[in-house]
Amino acid sequence: MRARSSGRALSTATRFPRLGALAAAVWLFALPAASEGLDVSVRDAKGRPVKDAVVYAAAKGGVAPPPTGAAAVIDQVDKEFVPRVTAVRAGTAVSFPNRDRIRHHVYSFSKAKTFEIPLYKGMPPRPVLFDKPGVVALGCNIHDWMSAHVFVAETPFFAVTGPDGKAKIDGLDPGEYDVEVWYPRMKDAPRSTRRSISVKRDKGPETSFVIQQAPAWRAWRAPAASGGGYR
Q1: What is the pLDDT of residues 90-127, one digit of tens each?
Q2: What distance in Å separates the CA atoms of residue 151 and residue 183, rounded to the nearest whole number?
Q3: Could you tell me the domains of the chain?
Q4: pTM of the prediction?
């Protein structure tokens, strides 16, 4: 004669309801603190938004996470660098594809990175590794008006302002940070402004900067070939 089931084979969670609740609480406690975003706005002395300003944050007394071997791209389109300002972490490899039908000669004499990509079309054979923090000014040896900047940061927390002068630095854990701004034509020596902010859990902070801009200057751009000039 077969023994009948008593129907008492209950799950662990049913037999010990407290264990399930305790496990859930431990799991939630073990989750990392949610990171926050820092909203930053940059304006000039007349209240106008500043585009292409680099804003970056560094934890006070903290150690920055190791570089991740990131990659970035700076295009050459219609004989201009696109974008004009790029922010990368030290250790980033940057490619310089030439989208034009003519050749370019990209170079920099900056202390943070000196390099040269001789006359070429299309994609260069290899990217350029920006391994030292600092500001790198770019130029083209054929088209003098072409200029751009690469801001190489030690910290992974940075952003570049848009046309509205605003940017958001994501990934900040709760804590104290030094926030700075850099802009190619900023008059404030040493071309940066710093302030301290506190990032709290579930509350993304905001901060703003007002900078003094030097007058814009740019090399004369040659006329189109159809107008009798060179390109």
Answers
A1: 999 999 999 999 999 999 999 999 999 999 999 999 99
A2: 9
A3: 35-62+161-219 (2.60.40.1120), 65-154 (2.60.40.420)
A4: 0.79
